[in-house]
Amino acid sequence: MAQRFPCRTMALPRSGSLAGGALLLAILVTIPAGVRAQERVPGRPHLAAGADTNSAAAYYAFGVERLRAGRAGVAADAFYWASRLAPDWADPLYARRDALILSRPDRLVSFMEGTRSVIESPEARQLDSLRLRALEVDPFVYEDLERDVIMAYLTERTMADLRQRYLASDVERMRQEVKNAVELYLRTPAAAWWRAWLAYAERRLPDALRYYAEALRKAPDDEHDYRSRLHAQRGRAFYLSGRRDSAQVELQWAIDELRRRDESVTIRVYESKALLEHSLGVGLENAGDTADAREAYGRALVEDLAFYPAHVRLGRLMAAAGDTAGARKELELALEVAPDAAVARLTLANHYYGSGDDRAAVTTLEPLLEREPYWVEPYLLRGLALQRLGDREGAARQFATFLALSEATDDRRAAVAQRLAALRNQ
């Protein structure tokens, strides 16, 4: 049976499972024979003196620095705060997922190989949620921290196998040699999938494209989940390389592989057709092909009517085309199926404001201010709506909060400060 990664991110092919002795043997040959619940809200990490504590980018950079220094738990906390300051930014969500995986070395192998008791735990479901939320915000989010996960998994998997053969104290002394062996293994043709994943994470996109193609040539025809994952990742690599036509082809192949799987068996997998259709639509939309993008979003909703990002994208396209009523319907549907989705709620409120319905904008934003109190965007929009409604005091409070929470480099600060001063002088 295929091994599964945590969060059902992919399935290894039956013929290439690395959970057993194949990986160990591939790496051991390079080692000298003589050595053989509700989510906890973390405290804010202390940034360096002079850093902007209102900046999501500052917390993200701090998190990357701590992750590379081997402090995955602190990194996860930093990424959490980056995501709270900017819920519309996908990178901190994905980074937090990787940091949380790395913060539990005792469960790393079980996470990566999909041990049932682990992947069904609340902890694993949190990882599921973080990856999905990241891809909902940006289906082409760069997964550059995956290198740390790959290296940690292959090292810990080999160490675990060695502990079954040698004394634990002897094995621990071999850790650096194992790491060196993993690096060598990743340069061999036998590691086609890993080599592709690593090249992608290191932003060596031409290499990633070549290695993903190599992995696809080796993948069994009936491993539809695995082949779909390879096509999807190759499509993302093409997209990030600026080759959007090729990206669309790969994403369509990824969708087709899942359809072939569904003809023979029904299983719930993480990389859903709705998500892939949405990714295809975003690529088409960014290339200026709005007609085909709308069709892709429509297909995503046929697959999963509750996939709110497709409703949001359709609503935006309709608004841009002048279909105000259609846009409102789609954006309201998005919020109906995902009332806690911050981006969907802000987009609907912005649509209300843009169409002159200030009261609806204010009402729609109220739950968002409670749920995302550190995000500056709702305060600014609510202040503008209240000002148009003639509520000077309410608008002033929103603008003051925006100024207190926004980054020092936010280029809107001067205009908001002027509005606030004018309100206070009236």
Nearest-integer average pLDDT: 86
Write down how many β-strands occur, each being a DSSP E stretch of 2 or more residues: 0
Major sheet characteristics: none
Rg, rounded, reads 24 Å
Helix residue percentage? 55-70%
SS-based class: mainly alpha
Task: Give the CA-based shape.
Answer: globular
Q: What's the helix count? A: 23
Characterise the protein shown here.
The protein has 426 residues and is mainly α. It has helices at 21-28, 56-68, 72-85, 91-102, 108-113, 116-119, 122-137, 146-163, 168-173, 175-185, 192-201, 205-218, 224-240, 244-264, 273-286, 290-303, 308-320, 324-337, 342-354, 358-371, 376-388, 392-405, 413-425. The longest helix has 21 residues, at 244-264.
What is this structure, in a nutshell?
This protein is 69% helix and 0% strand.
Task: List key phrases describing it.
69% helix; disordered N terminus; mainly alpha; Serine Threonine Protein Phosphatase 5, Tetratricopeptide repeat; 23 helices; 426 residues
Q: Layout of helices and strands, plus pairs?
A:
Layout: H1 21-28, H2 56-68, H3 72-85, H4 91-102, H5 108-113, H6 116-119, H7 122-137, H8 146-163, H9 168-173, H10 175-185, H11 192-201, H12 205-218, H13 224-240, H14 244-264, H15 273-286, H16 290-303, H17 308-320, H18 324-337, H19 342-354, H20 358-371, H21 376-388, H22 392-405, H23 413-425
Helix pairs in contact: 1-8, 2-3, 2-4, 3-4, 4-7, 8-10, 11-12, 12-13, 13-14, 14-15, 15-16, 16-17, 17-18, 17-19, 18-19, 19-20, 19-21, 20-21, 21-22, 22-23
